[in-house]
Amino acid sequence: MEWEVVIGLEIHTQLNTKTKIFSAAATAYGADPNTQACAVDLGLPGVLPVLNKEAVAKAAMFGLAVDATINDGSVFDRKNYFYPDLPKGYQISQLAIPIVEHGKLEIALEDGSTKVVGITRAHLEEDAGKSLHEDFDGMTGIDLNRAGTPLIEIVSEPEMSSAKEAVAYMKKIHSIVQYLGICDGNMQEGSFRCDANVSVRRKGEMELGTRTETKNLNSFRFVERAINYEIERQIDVIESGGRVVQETRLYDADDDSTRTMRTKEEANDYRYFPDPDLLPVKLDADLLVQLQEQLPELPDVKQKRFCNQYGLNNDDAEQISASRDMADYFEQVVKYANGEAKMAVNWVSGELSGALNQNNLEIGQTQVSAERLAQLISRISDNTISGKIAKEVFQAMWSSDKTADQVIEEKGLQQILDIGELEAIVDKVVGENPKQAEQYLSGKDKVFGFFVGKVMQITKGKANPAQVNELLKSKLV
After folding, report:
1. Do 251 and 258 form a contact (C-beta atoms < 8 A)?
2. Which residues, at least 6 apart from 449, have a Cβ–Cβ distance to it below 8 Å?
3. Residues 6 or more apart whose Cβ sits within 8 Å of residue 453
4. Quick check: helix, strand or coil at residue 240?
5. Distances, alpha carbon 320 to alpha carbons 222, 324, 330, in Å
6. Cα Rg for the chain, rounded, in angstroms?
7. Contact indicator for 199, 208 with CB cutoff of 8 Å
8. 388: part of which helix (H) or strand (E)?
9. Residues 220, 226 contacting (CB under 8 angstroms)
10. Rounded to whole angstroms, how far apart are CA atoms 291 and 70?
């Protein structure tokens, strides 16, 4: 390719405090419109903001997790602009001295290598309200419940060079904030969303191209699609003799494209100045020590431990450790299944994850507890059932509260362990199919699968596959 792509992300992470960043109003999702907005959130004359200490602590904890500098003396600024859902006419944010600066994050690339992406800053700010355009007879409704909700905006360095790298970075941030317990990560509800800054330049050029910002992307799939569309669009514009305009764009998922929202403002357009109602934030050294001690085992560390402790390969360990809840569930399964880690990771990342995705559920909503899944795995290990039959048992467990043992007993799914009974079935299958036996003996090894299938069909899948293979090899000579 003759083009280079430069990508930076601004990730908006809603902190899961019970109250807003500058008021005592609740932050619960789903309340009736405008029932969780107090005088401070509405920007009424004479009100004063009071900083939420918990929001500060959660922001600092994120900084510690990404090996960043935590500024002692961060300052809140007023960012002035008009939105219908921003009653004060300004947003309280941080520009000159954010609470977090100069962090870094390592991401895994598709070729198995890794890349370190710099985190420029993570600053505290308040969210705006929400404009609703449906069901109002052509008018727009304003819901201010979200106004004043605490956010940290995590700004990366422009160091990513593909949409896949950007998604890998965003997924890593998503995993970290959930591990820390500072954000629920719910993208559908807007708790975790990002703006993607994209520019292109010809290979060898030193100066960055003109960038566009695509706003409010709330799924990993949309981030990848929006970035790829912008890359192609910008290249087409330049190759056609045009000029890329610095602007803010929106992604339309219906036709998989971006469109102009407004020309891009610069910092001076917002007329930033220190908020006169809020003093600089001085962090107590003891608080930082406490937060450092509270840091959980983070995804990268957990991934390495899973490889060392359970003998998982790197891909399995990475997949299972991406979610803290999934990792905890996996370790519970291993514990109850007497250390059957490899089988546990296969079932958790395979059958269980498939059922969760099919039913649009999170791991915390699973129909099968870790203890029940462990019992199923144990029945495979002790040869009570085969792996194939286990899938049937799992489906029955998913749709009921029965244990694996109860399902196996009720359905009569125990494996045939009587070697004499199984040998008689194998003899019958070989005797009834002399043509296929001759083909196998003449060197057509694939015919062996035919005999295995016949035995499994007669036994309704209850034969032990290893025993079937061994018996067939002894008979087909």
Report:
1. yes
2. none
3. none
4. coil
5. 23, 9, 8
6. 29
7. yes
8. helix 387-398
9. no
10. 12
Q: Which helix (H) or strand (E) holds 253?
A: none
By DSSP bridging, strand 3-14 and strand 150-156 are: antiparallel
In this structure, are residues 194 and 13 in contact, taking their beta carbons and an 8 Å threshold? no
Per-residue pLDDT of the chain (477 residues; tens, 9 = 90+): 699 999 999 999 999 999 999 999 999 998 999 999 999 999 899 999 999 999 999 999 999 999 999 999 999 999 998 888 888 999 999 999 999 999 999 999 988 899 999 999 999 999 999 888 877 677 888 999 999 999 999 999 999 999 999 999 999 999 999 999 999 999 989 899 999 999 999 998 989 999 999 999 999 999 999 999 999 999 999 999 999 999 999 999 999 999 998 876 676 788 999 999 999 999 989 999 999 999 999 999 999 999 999 999 999 999 999 999 999 999 999 999 999 999 999 999 999 999 999 999 999 999 999 999 999 999 999 888 888 889 999 999 999 999 999 999 898 888 776 678 778 888 888 888 888 888 888 888 888 888 888 878 887 777 777 778 888 888 887
CA dist 394 and 85 (Å) reads 49
Three-state DSSP class for residue 75 = coil
CA 426 distance to own-chain centroid:
48
Can you say whether residue 153 is alpha, beta or left, with left for phi > 0 and alpha for psi between -120 and 50 degrees? beta
In 253-391, the DSSP E strands lie at 257-263, 273-274
What would the 3-class secondary structure string for 432-450 be?
A: HCHHHHHHHHCCCHHHHHH
The residues spanned by each domain of the chain are 3-290, 297-411, 419-475
E strands, 71-110, in order: 77-80, 90-93, 100-108
Helix (H) or strand (E) holding 184: none
Domain 419-475 has CATH 1.10.10.410: yes
Q: Helix (H, G, I), strand (E, B), or coil: what is residue 188?
A: coil
- Give 269's strand partners: none
The dihedrals phi and psi of 127, each to the nearest 5 degrees, come to -85, 160
What are the structure tokens assigned to 466, written together?
Answer: 């290893």
Q: Strand pairing partners for 122?
A: 100, 154
Closest listed residue to residue 19, CA positions, set 56, 55, 60: 55
Q: How far is CA 349 from CA 303, 315, 322, 353, 382, in A?
A: 14, 11, 11, 5, 22
Taken as a whole, the chain contains a residue count of 477
| Inter-helix orientation angle 324-336/314-321, to 10° | 110
Compute the distance between CA of residue 369 and CA of residue 364 in angstroms, rounded to an integer.
9
Question: Whole-angstrom Cα distance, residue 280 to residue 293?
Answer: 25
